[in-house]
Design brief:
This protein has 467 residues and is an alpha+beta fold. Among the domains are: 123 residues, Chitinase A, domain 3 (Roll); 102 residues, Chitinase A, domain 3. It is 45% helix and 17% strand. It contains 15 helices and 11 strands. The longest helix has 27 residues. About 12% of the residues have low confidence. InterPro entries: OMP_Chaperone_SurA, PPIase_dom_sf, PPIase_PpiC, Trigger_fact/SurA_dom_sf. Keywords: Isomerase, Rotamase, Signal.
């Protein structure tokens, strides 16, 4: 990622931005509360010692029996339903493994607070669904569980074994699945959303008027700062940016730090979604200027805004109603050769030179197998690859290639060397979304809004006892 920086100066009022909902196993909603133990003074220490003395405990006690880790002690009771420490630990283990997060002890404690809130929400959703006589059978849960296992590249049996190795259990995952299925079914029954043709046509007309204008997919981390804390918060934001660039908190490091954001987008990994030119103009001028100067997959900040600092990540841009060349689908053949272990740099350079020389002689995909056999290389076919799904370094190359041409060799000592041969290209077609597509999008937005309102009501009315 490229970065831009800004220096801290005097600050004004604070602000935040809105966003939508999160997906199963994608992220944990809510901000992370900062917690620390209360300091113990001399009087507290003396009181503790007096309590121990009064117990008359032996100096070297013999323990009869052992602590059984399978015994579940309640951590929270939600309308009578118990959430145990085991429930929390298993869910934490699952999400850490799924997102490849590496956390310190302090970060882990903060992360557990987020998981507790997520489990409370799931419990409320399941309870509300059951009160409305919404039933999710074991077969439905197992079917979804099998799908999740396949997404992990495992059979259901292998998934159970895998979950045990990471300190989780299939029970934890199935509980999350039950909550997701129960809540979705409840919403389908209780939330009646009607989007009329007049509304749909108005949206389509608006899209037509905006055709050719640019939309920006943006993610944001906002850190609130009073004037006297500006240097401290600015330094914190710089540390976040360095960590995001190194990706030392897992694949979605930006999403990890977005949960510390003071904006409402913390619940969705800092995602502002796609912003039109008009929506973009409503942001602080400093953010607008930064976003318009950025290229996709570019990180900028810390940027001073009213009330604090923002870190901005531009995910992508697109033209409304205009075909994006990066959406073209390619038919490719990949020629790849692995380097033997212990190869010297000189030997590797010689192999690369030979590979480059022979691959450049390829005149169409019909010659790929012949050249690969000469090199002793492997050939892999792929019939549908979008240009925008390729690594950034290859996108510009593929845009310029003609059918039958190959890319320059690329790779590494670990992965070997390879080249892509372009066998065909299906250009993207510009289109204005149809009525049903627009209607479906609008209905989903309104259902999500109503779902958030219902969940807020459930939280407000719930009886939650912490232990």
């Amino acid at each position: 990622m490229k970065t831009d920086t800004a220096k801290p100066t005097r600050l004004g009022r604070s602000f935040g931005f809105g966003a939508a909902i999160i997906a199963l196993l994608a992220a944990s909603g809510g901000s992370i509360a900062q917690t620390a133990p209360a300091p113990a003074g001399p009087e507290a220490a003396a009181s503790d010692q007096a309590g121990v003395t009064a117990l008359d405990l032996p100096k070297n006690p013999t323990i009869f029996g052992k602590v059984d880790p399978t015994i579940r002690k309640p951590t929270a009771i939600v309308n009578g339903a118990v959430i145990t420490g085991t429930d929390i630990d298993q869910r934490v283990a699952l999400l850490l493994a799924a997102r490849d997060l590496k956390l310190s002890a302090q970060e882990m404690a903060q992360y557990k607070l987020v998981i507790v809130r997520q489990l409370i929400d799931e419990t409320l959703e399941i309870q509300q669904a059951k009160s409305a006589d919404v039933k999710i059978g074991p077969d439905e849960i197992n079917k979804s569980y099998d799908t999740v296992a396949r997404n992990f590249g495992k059979t259901p049996t292998e998934m159970r074994a895998y979950l045990r190795t990471i300190g989780s259990a299939d029970r934890s995952l199935k509980r999350q699945i039950e909550a997701e299925l129960s809540w979705n079914r409840y919403l389908r029954r209780k939330v009646d959303v009607n989007v009329g043709d007049e509304e749909v046509n108005a949206i389509i007309d608006k899209i037509k008027k905006q055709q050719g204008s640019t939309e920006y997919h943006v993610r944001e981390i906002y850190l609130k700062a009073d004037a006297d804390r500006a240097p401290e918060v600015f330094a914190q934001a710089q540390q976040m940016m360095q960590s995001i660039q190194k990706r030392d908190k897992g694949e979605d490091t930006f999403g990890y730090y977005a949960r510390l954001s003071d904006a409402t987008t913390r619940a969705t990994g800092g995602d502002l979604d796609w912003l039109s030119e008009q929506q973009l103009s409503q942001l602080p001028a400093a953010l607008v200027e930064a976003i318009k100067s950025m290229t996709p997959e570019h990180l900028a900040g810390p940027i001073e805004v009213p009330g604090g600092f923002s870190i901005i990540y531009l995910v992508d841009t697109r033209k409304i109603g205009v075909a994006d060349p990066l959406d073209a689908r390619l038919t490719l053949k990949q020629v790849s050769e692995r380097f033997p272990e212990g190869i010297t740099q000189e030997q590797a350079n010689a192999r690369v030179a030979e590979f480059a020389k022979l691959s450049s002689t390829i005149k169409g995909c019909g010659e790929v197998a012949k050249v690969a056999a000469t090199l002793g290389a492997d050939v892999v076919d792929n019939d549908s690859v979008r240009i925008k799904d390729l690594p950034v370094a290859l996108r510009e190359i593929m845009l310029k290639l003609q059918v039958g041409e190959s890319t320059p060799p690329f790779g590494s000592a670990k992965d070997g060397i390879r080249s892509l041969v372009l066998c065909g290209r299906d250009e993207a077609v510009a289109n204005i979304p149809g009525m049903e597509q627009v209607r479906s999008t609008m209905e989903n937005q309104r259902v999500n809004l109503r779902a958030n309102q219902l969940l807020r009501d459930l939280r407000r009315d719930a009886i939650v006892e912490y232990r």
